[in-house]
Automatic annotation (TrEMBL):
One GO CC annotation: extracellular region
Family recorded in the similarity comment: Belongs to the bacterial solute-binding protein 3 family.
Domain Ionotropic glutamate receptor C-terminal: 36-267
Record-given protein name: Bacterial extracellular solute-binding s, 3 family protein
Length: 298
């Protein structure tokens, strides 16, 4: 037994970090030996990462990950690189990457300081803002209109924290509910179990566009935060991260990011019945692409 409990805790933490680093440093070797790269995907984060009609992972972030996978294939000089997919949720996505069960997480994950303690992020591929989707008939326009209302968000996301940081939950006496995924959270609004679903605006636009009656819903509220979405990768592997960052930089500098943005946000999407989000690229994201970096303020 340790006489100094603080020393024992510190040693345990150090050993845990070392074990995580040891796993991460073998990413490229693992991919080379198995000739397989594993991509974590979301089942309902349209248009970033979702299942199409054939239950195949597709989306804006999936396209980006596939380009990174091709860069890994070239770097390792592999004649063929298999793509394996593993589904993740808002709740377990960080654990899956931190434990090395997947090599890239292709979804709609915000790069923030708390998460960077456990995983690494590459250059942001989107900038979102936290807002809410409501039923038009309820006439909810902004956050003060949620007084004594039920608000849902998806488990494991940053949206409720944004409300709490502003003191909105307590001051407005909101009841906070959690959905397992974005579809379940939105269904609570559809079923009138909740009055508002708080989430990143682009995900709300996707849910609204695919609803049975899109006109029945509105995306409202002043933006609470700016959320830089980025692909996650295991922490502590500088060689692997450098490769991923380099490919993301190339995608941006060569203009491929703009073509992908047009494909997923401005054009009809075939496997979504030619649905079009009609969401122009925001000013903050466009400006961030002028000076690509994985460094964010929060």
């Amino acid at each position: 037994m340790w006489r100094n409990s603080g020393y024992g805790v510190a040693l345990a933490l150090l050993l845990s970090v070392m074990a995580t680093a040891a796993r991460a440093e073998d990413v490229l070797a693992k991919i080379r030996d198995s000739k397989t790269i594993t991509l974590a995907y979301r089942e309902a984060s349209f248009p970033f990462s979702y299942l199409d009609q054939d239950k195949k992972p597709v989306g804006y972030a999936i396209d980006l990950c596939l380009k990174i996978a091709d860069a890994v294939k070239q770097q390792l000089k592999l004649p063929q690189l298999n793509i394996a997919y593993v589904p993740v949720t808002s709740s377990n996505r960080i654990d899956v990457i931190a434990s090395g069960k997947a090599d890239l997480e292709c979804g709609s994950t915000t790069n923030n300081a708390e998460r960077r303690k456990r995983v690494d992020f590459t250059i942001a591929h989107f900038m979102a803002s936290s807002r809410m989707i409501v039923r038009v008939d309820d006439k909810i326009k902004n956050w003060p209109d949620l007084r004594n209302k039920k608000v849902v968000t998806t488990k494991g996301t940053t949206s409720v924290k944004s409300l709490e940081d502003r003191g909105q939950v307590r001051s407005l006496n909101m009841t906070v509910l959690e959905g397992h995924d974005h579809n379940e959270s939105f269904k609570m609004v559809e079923d009138k179990t909740a009055d508002a679903f708080v989430m990143d605006d682009v995900l709300l636009y996707g849910l609204k566009a695919t609803a049975k009656n899109p006109a029945a819903y509105a995306i409202v509220g002043e933006p609470l935060t700016t959320e830089p979405y980025a692909i996650m990768l295991p922490k502590g592997d500088p060689a692997y991260k450098a490769l991923v960052d380099r490919e993301m930089g190339r995608i941006i500098h060569d203009g491929e990011i703009y073509k992908l943005y047009t494909k997923w946000f401005l054009s009809p999407i075939p496997n979504k019945n030619n649905l079009t989000l009609n969401m122009p690229m925001g000013y903050l994201f466009r400006e961030s692409l002028r000076f690509p970096s994985d460094q964010v303020g929060n």
